[in-house]
Amino acid sequence: xxxxxxxxxxxxMSFLHAQDITDAVRYSQQDILxxxxxRGMSGAFGALGGDMSALQINPAGSAVFIGSSGSxxxxxxxxxxxASYFNGFSATSSxxxxxxxxxxxxxxxxxxxxxxxxxxxxxxxxxxxxxYAEELFAFGRSNNSIDSYFLSEAQGIPLDLxxxxxxxxIDDLYDFLGExxxxxxxxxxxxxxxxxxxxxxxxxxxxxxxxxxxxPVDLNSDPFPYAQDxxxxxxxxxxxxxxxxxxxxxxxxxxxxxxxxxxINYDRVTEFFEGNNISGSSINEILFTNRLSTIxxxxxxxxxxxxxxxxxxxxxxxxxxxxxxxxEEETTQxxxxxxxxxxxxxxxxxxxxxxxxYELRTPARATGxxxxxxxxxxxxxxxxxxxxxxxxxxxxxxxxxxxDLNRQIENTLQGASTLRIGGELRNGNWSFRGGYSYEESPYxxxxxxxERTGLSLGIGYxxxxxxxxxxxDYSEQERNQEFYPNSAFTNFATIDSYRDNxxxxxxxxx
Length: 510
Known about the structure:
Blueprint: E1 4-7, H1 13-18, H2 21-26, H3 36-40, E2 69-85, E3 88-109, E4 117-131, E5 134-142, H4 147-154, H5 159-162, H6 170-180, H7 183-193, E6 197-199, E7 210-212, E8 226-249, E9 253-275, E10 285-308, E11 313-320, E12 324-339, E13 343-347, E14 351-354, E15 358-361, E16 365-373, E17 378-388, E18 393-395, H8 403-412, E19 415-427, E20 430-439, E21 452-462, E22 466-482, E23 492-509
């Protein structure tokens, strides 16, 4: 059990290794989650309203409800990750069960002819906005060893700083380096203590240059001598609690406001294994394990309106402010090596790195919507949203540590558009739905994270007081999974992700 707690706060370099652009994108994106009707139409509800999850897009949707109602939603999801890494290919599949949403809207119809407000609404809701559950496995033979990760961190650090004193434990020195020097020096210590690297002059405590004990590539014998495996597993979710107020003004205009309280719960474990049979190599196997636990809380607000141009045509517009998060992270690490000549070495610090709380501002979102209604026969709806991911920003109270990372975000990320199209056909008490979604990459270089496309189908039955809906949706996206971002070890696997979901919603007229 980990029993030593460490606050890394004295070295700003620790931040640069703990947070990166992938964190900014992860906590800024939202999936199409919510009620089965919402998902069955790919979330194209900005000009429609009348659904609890439609409030995620346009707060004015609460005032469209004819009467008070509520809903609860459960779903099952499956994600398959196909990983290509040098000459290796693998497919990993995982399943998950989610409680997607619960909410209720209370509608007050105003019968007074003198009032401009025909209707007032008040809503409370919980919505899951992102599902982080995922697994992947990649393997292949590489020409680049993970020794470069530890070697680059060690260069320039005096050997004396990485050497344990008499009676000093691994935990003690790892703890001390985190408190006084930062996360990067801890990585150098792990590499030195596990014999992956050593000083060019081991007898000089002031030596600041290092070499690797992993033999380099010999092009004459094997140009790809390093057999490597990478395992990644993440769990958790991003969700929000919403208080909504809406109003119908005369017969044609609906307005609404959301106040959102967000939370993040994200856990990740990665394991990297490398083996070689290079003659003369002092290190033949490396196993590097990292665990990350993240919690966060944030706030955002939304405002929106829907214009009923005619009985057939509706227009919608909404704006969601940036979300301001406060985030805390903890990490643990472990390195194990094996030498054909000297046996095993284990470096397993009994230490939890607790990083100082930092702030993250995610980008705002603007949405325009149009819907065409064919009376009781059905409808077609379209939403267009825009987010400028380059405006994402890290900050920390009392520290000015994120300027380089924020410049990197500005230069790497871009504005991204999202298009959602949905339709519904009604026949008596039955409803049949379908939809399509397209989301641009937030990266200027789309090979890092590609566009995401999705299709959806749904069916529902109205029993009167009770409604039951089912939806199936499918999406796919390609990305490069970099094993250790912002490091000298730049290896990555190409991942094709395929996600499908079944969603079930029970709705009640209150």
